[in-house]
Description:
The chain is mainly α.
Amino acid sequence: MINLNFIYSELFLAISIMSLLIIGVFKKNSSILIYNLSIISLLVCLALIFNFPISENVELFNKSYKIDYLSSFMKILTISSGIFVLLSSNKYIQITNISKIEYPILVLSSILGMMVMISSNDLILFYIGLELQSLALYVLASFNRDNLLSSESGLKYFVLSALSSGILLYGCSLIYGFSGSTNFFTIADNLTANSHGLTFGIVFILVGLSFKISAVPFHMWAPDVYEGSPTSVTVFFAILPKIAALTVFIRFLYIPFFNLIDQWQMIIVFLSISSMLFGAIAAIGQKNLKRLLAYSSIGHMGYALAGLATGTNQGIQSSIAYISIYLFMNLAFFSCLFMLRRDEKYFDNIKDLSGLSKNHPLLSFSLLIVLFSLAGIPPLAGFFAKFYIFTAVIAESMYFLAIVGLLSTVIAAFYYLRLIKIIYFDNEKDKYETSHNIGLKLSLLFSTIFILFYFIYPGWLTEIIEKINII
C-alpha cells in the first residue's frame, strides 16, 4: 500500500488545477477569482509540505519517486517563488490585458511539472515532469497575443525546446538500452566501466538539461524569450525552471552516474566556464533590461554549475545556496521593474532608469541593493552566494575554474555599476506612478530586506542546506 501522505502537495495541486479550470469555465468574468484561488492553492501546498517533515528518505512507485530533504527543500523554494511571482505580477497582468483564467492555471501546471521533476528518481517520470512544465511555459511565453514579440518568443521557445527535448529523450533511450532500466538506482547497479553508449546518453541528457537552464552554448533562446514574453512570465522563466533543472542535474549526475565522474566532470566545467564568461561579456551591450537579465542569468547559472562540477557534497550544497539567494535577487529586480509604470504602460529599457533617484529614492535604493548584490559586492547576500561557490571549488583545487569565475564577476560588475550610474547621475525623466498593489510592495520589501541583512546571520541558510547529503 502506497503511503500518499508524502505526495499530498502534488495531489492537492493537481486537483486544484482541474477544479479551477471547471470554475473558470462555468463562472463568467472569474479571472481575478481564479488568480486569487491559485495563490491560496500554492499556500496550501506549502503548508502540506511543512506538515510532513522528512526524517528519512521515502521512495514511492517502485523507487521512481523520491521524497527526501533535497526534494522537500527545493519544492518549498519553487512554491514560495511561485507565490511571490503571482503576488508581484497581479497588477501587471490586469493592465496588460492578459488577465485570463488560463494564465494562473498554466502557472500552476508548470509548478506541478517542476515538483514531479524535483522528486523524480526515474528517467520516464523526470521526462513527464519536464514536459508538463515545458508545455505550460510554451503557452505562457506567447500569452500576450496582441504583441508580436510575445508570439515570436513563444514560437522560438517552442521550436528550440522541442529540439532539446528530443535530444534529451534520445539520451534517455540510450541509457535505457545500455543499462536495462530507467530507474536511477538500477542504472547505478548496472553500470559498466567501458560502456561508451552510456557516455553518449549522459552527454545527450546534459545537452537537454543545459537548454532548460540556458547554459552556454544552449542559451540562444533566452534573450529573445525573456524580452518578448510578458514581464510576469519572464520573472517566472528567470527563477522557477532553474530550481527544478538544478535538482535534476544533482540527482542525475550524483545518483546513477557518480562513478563515471571522470567522464562528465569536464563537460560541467566547460558549461560553467563558457556560461560565466559569455553571460558577463554579452550583457555589456544590451539596452533592454529584460535582455540584460537574460544574459545575467546565463552567467549566474555558470556559477551554480561550478559547484556541481566539484563532485562533492560541499559543491552541491554551495550550488543550492547560490540558487536560493539568486531567486531573491531576481525577485527583487523584477519587482522594481513592475514599478516602472506610467499612464498604464510599463517600461523596460535601460534609459528608462535615467535619473530615477530624483523622483523615486526608495525604489532607487532597492535597485542599488539588488544590483550591488548581483555584482557580488560584500556584505550583501550575492557576495555570500559567490563565496560559497568559490570555497567549494578551491577546496577541490580547481583553481582555473575559480579564476575564471572571479574574472567574470569583475566583468559583470561593469554593467551592474553602469545601471547604478544611470539611476543616480543621469538626467531625470518623468515621474512614474507610485500606486502599486500590496503584493508587489511586500515582494520587494521582503526580498530587499533578505539581501540587505543576510550578512547578520548567514549561517542559517547553510545550516539548513548542510542536511542535504547526496553522496
